[in-house]
Amino acid sequence: MFGLQKKDEWMPDSFTPLRALVGSPRAPRMTTFKHKDELKPMQASDGLQSVLEHSMDGLPTGNAAPQVTDEMKKEAHLWVVREEDAVHAPEYCDFGNALAEGRIKHTNLTGGAPAYSGGELIWIGDREVLVNGCSGRYGPTNAEEMIAAARAFAIAGYRCWSTGYDEGTGFCFRFGASVPVEMKRDD
Amino acid sequence: MTDSSFEEIGNQRPAADGQLFVRSQTQLAVDNPFAKGQRLTRAQVEDAFGVSLLRRVEEEDVVSLVETINEPAKTLREKRIQLGLDVDQLARSSKLPIALVTDAETPGKIVPIQSLNTLCQFLALDESVLGYKAAAGGDEKLGVRLRLLSENRDVRAFSPATVAALAEAAWVIAKQMNLSGLISRQPHSLVRHDSRRDGDYNYPAYRKGYLLAERTRKLLDLAPDAPIESVRVLVEEFLRIPLIQVTLETRFAGATIANGAHRGIVVNERGRNSEVAVRRMTTCHELAHLMWDPDEQLDRLLVDDYESIEGRPSGADAVEIRANSFAVAFLAPRKAVIDIVAASSNLGNALTRVCERFGISASAARHHVHNVCEVETATVRMAAPDFSPWLAAENRTIDFLPGLDDGVPISRRGMFSGIVAKAYIAGAISADTAAMCLRSPTESTIAAAPGIAEIWGLLN
Fold it and tell me: Could A31 and B64 be called an inter-chain contact, meaning their C-beta atoms sit closer than 8 Å?
């Protein structure tokens, strides 16, 4: 359902405003780098998927913010906004299982190349997603970037919930550490 | 990616030694320039959260500390209610906006960690594990006793402000003992958690108090007739008991508080304690409770008004009678008093001499001489004693804290300040934590720390 969207050439997408805010793509922060295979690029055949763009029709509704369970966390994906697209893949998958850490890192989504932003996401439904900016390598460095990243998912046609940015730690909130806030495309 | 670039990337890992971490309301992270939370040392993180969580933070940069998004709001709200405080009262005592206190008690609302730390101090909660451990290590028995203080229907009822101040004192006591452990400054063996207690209050309780005073003087190797030059030094520096000064309603004299495993003494700077001789008596009265009352008598909190200490305790309260006779005989040993009276040309001179030699008030001297010499003293005319020689040694806690301004609460100005400064200098706690403890800006706390540690003899 979230298959790779093939693009023959670069064109503006929902993540363009985020790229404009960040400016230039950033090299990954590698403070927790341990194994060479954290830079092994993941391919579509390994489970890498693009964030598909949808119309605004048929968005899920309702007021309740999603409650994150441990089971949902185990199914979380990593996402990265690259130069020409935004991609995601399950953190725990066959490709990750073959890596030294037993799971993928954000740099597997980029091959270690610079990128604009990154984090984790949980699919609540086909068109509803909960995102955070928890990427040691590419994560947002301030609240504005986190808002822009979450808004990009909303612009792409998803009902998007964001965990937000934790001013206290200078990192985004992990799942379960804050009450998710719905991010509208026009917010 | 080549091997050389791999090395280049791998070498960006930060050194573990001296590394700081930073916590917010719900998360703990490696330190970084963007964070506005409270910095913690590695030792603090290990102490509060354990080694495995520390390793997770190093691995993942940031981790959640809360099991449920209801924390820490639930803990804060429940503790406030347990203490019998309403939101307005807590806001007033902590000097935080009412809206912020309300937010802190609302699940999911994010409040600066510095404000949460302040709230914890007035709720006697351990801020270092707030949100992470159930009830933040709060002592439930203490909370209940504090609430009962304000719910009393009789004249002994205390105001909510006093309850909050005593809760804060309980926090200072626990924090001082925790920090003392971090800098290997253990309390004297006479006052440790498992040290001697004596549950015998059998009649006559006053005589039991005398005997305990004499036994205590022997245990402390005090000469039988020697005055105690500074009760403050004895309690804070020799016995290493937390001695917390507070500013409370004037009828409150002192209290002995057990917060978890830690015991400490609280003394009101207002009321008759502003007289040095009364303050010495109050402190010794509380010392009797702390050293000799078993836990079931102490019941986490023993509050004394001046009637209990200088006059007759209400009813036939054997616990208070024993503490009173301990205090006066500890300060003014019976035999030494008898010798002074015997050597004096008249009783008035003897009373003044007892006051000045042992640093006890005129009213305490009258009672004491009457009791031990069995002579009538109530109507004896005596010259006003000169207590000025006692002031310097007993007052340092109140008067002197170099390098920090008047904003430091009196509750933090005693040995507590020296231990905080020493813990910071030793690298056991972060500058943010030292500043939180002294309620001072971080930069001025850093600058003042060596001077404060030095005056308490803790620099080396």
Answer: no
